[in-house]
Amino acid sequence: MVKVGVHVSIAGSIEKAVERAESASCDTFQIFSRNPRGWAWKDLPEENVQAFRDALKKTSIFPPVDHMPYLPNLAGPNPDYYEKSVATLNAELKRCGQLGIPYLVTHLGHHTGMTIEDGRQKVISAINLALGEAPNDVMLLLENTAGEKNGVGNTFEDISAVLDGVHERHRAGVCFDTCHAFGAGYDLRTDDAIEETTGRFDKLIGLGEIRVIHCNDSKGELGSGLDRHEHIGMGHIGEEGFRRILRHEPFSRLPLICETPVDARRDDAGNIAKVRELAG
Q1: Is 214 a catalytic residue?
Q2: How many structural domains does the chain have?
Q3: Which residues neighbour 192 within 8 Å (Cβ) at sequence distance 6 or greater?
Q4: Which of 37, 143, 231, 256 would bridge with 175, disulfide CB 3.0–4.6 Å?
C-alpha cells in the first residue's frame, strides 16, 4: 500500500494543515511553514507549535514535510542575497525541529553565470553553515531540478557532489521529483527506462538516500527543461508511466507528495485517488 499525500495550506494557523491533510485523505503531507513568496518571517507561537504536534498525534499521517520558500538561492554569487538565503535555510531547519517535522526539502538554486563547480561549492557552504547552527535531527532533502538554465541540481552528478561535501552527512538526503527528472532528461515511462534512471541514481548517490518522492506528471516533454507539473497520468509521463513507477522500488515504499494542480479536471483528493489506483 503506497503512502501518498499532497501539499496543503497553513492558512489561518499552521495546525490547520493537519485538518486539511485529513480532509484530502492524505497518508503524508507537505507544507510551507510560512509565506513562501517573501523574506520576512515571525517566530512560531508556542501554542500553535503545540497545536500542530497535538493534531498530528491524533492521526496516522506521517511524515509531515516542510518545503523551503521560493526566494532563497543557495548557489548564487550575490553576497547579500546569499546571506539571506542561508539564514532562511537555518530558520526553516529550526522551525521543523520545533514542529516535529523530520524533513525539509530544498532546491539547490542557480549559479547565475558562475561555473557549475562554483555553484555546487556555494550550496555546500550554505548547507554546512545552516546545519551547523541548527543542532537538531531534521534531515535536509536536496531536490533534483528540471534542467533549467544555470540550475544546480539538474543532474544526479550535481546532487552527488553536494552530498559529498556535507559535513553532517547523516542529516542530508534526497527528495526525488518525477516531473523534474523527466524534464531534465531522465525517462520514467517504461520498465527499462525506470531501471536505467534508478540504476544511474543508485550508482552515483544510492537509492537509500531518497527519503521522499515528489510525485508529479509533466506538462513538458522528456528533456524539455520545463518545471511544469501536471495531474497524475495527464502529462507526458502518462498513466502507464505512473503505473510502472508506482510499482517499482524505491517509489512504491517511500512517502509520495503530489504537487499537482487543482482545477476543473481534478482536485488534490482526485490525484491521491489516482495514485492509489495506479499503484494497485
Answers
A1: yes
A2: 1
A3: none
A4: 143
